[in-house]
């Protein structure tokens, strides 16, 4: 069962393709506070011809959730910074907030007032709207 899970699911950790990339020279770069592990394929033109730069990826500690990457690692993953946070004394800036789980599709999802799914009652119509009818 585990072999089939590794082949056909991408959301439960590393897949066969990820393991293949690691075997081709993938280099461990570091681990964040959530347990996600970061790798890179060094800038070798023969290996990275399709990318134009070194390939970087993450193996999530649990369920694959892209928003679970902390701000410092996000910058490194997207080639915004060259040095990974594990190789420097990185401290997040005041405006960089810690990860919060994505609540979309759950009972805790944000539902603005007026939403059909909101627990609050919709505001009454203001009278400036007249519904269209085919007889008009």
UniProtKB/TrEMBL annotation:
Residues 94-103 have a biased composition (Basic and acidic residues). Pfam families: NDUFA12. GO terms for cellular component: respiratory chain complex I. One of its GO terms (biological process) is response to oxidative stress. InterPro entries: NDUFA12. PANTHER family: NADH DEHYDROGENASE [UBIQUINONE] 1 ALPHA SUBCOMPLEX SUBUNIT 12, NADH-UBIQUINONE OXIDOREDUCTASE SUBUNIT B17.2. NCBIfam families: PRK08183.1. This is NADH:ubiquinone oxidoreductase subunit NDUFA12. It comes from Hansschlegelia plantiphila.
């Amino acid at each position: 069962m585990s072999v089939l899970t590794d082949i056909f699911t991408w959301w439960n950790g590393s897949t066969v393709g990820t393991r293949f990339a690691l075997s081709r020279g993938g280099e461990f770069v570091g681990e964040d506070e959530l347990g996600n592990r970061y790798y890179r394929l060094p800038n070798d033109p023969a290996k990275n011809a399709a990318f134009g730069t070194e390939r970087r990826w993450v193996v999530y500690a649990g369920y694959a959730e892209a928003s679970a990457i902390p701000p410092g690692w996000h910058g490194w993953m997207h080639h915004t910074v060259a040095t990974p946070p594990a190789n420097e004394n990185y401290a997040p800036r005041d405006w960089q907030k810690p990860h919060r789980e994505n609540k979309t599709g759950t009972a805790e999802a944000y539902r603005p007032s007026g939403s059909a799914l909101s627990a609050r009652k919709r505001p009454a119509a203001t009278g400036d709207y007249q519904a269209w009818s085919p007889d008009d």
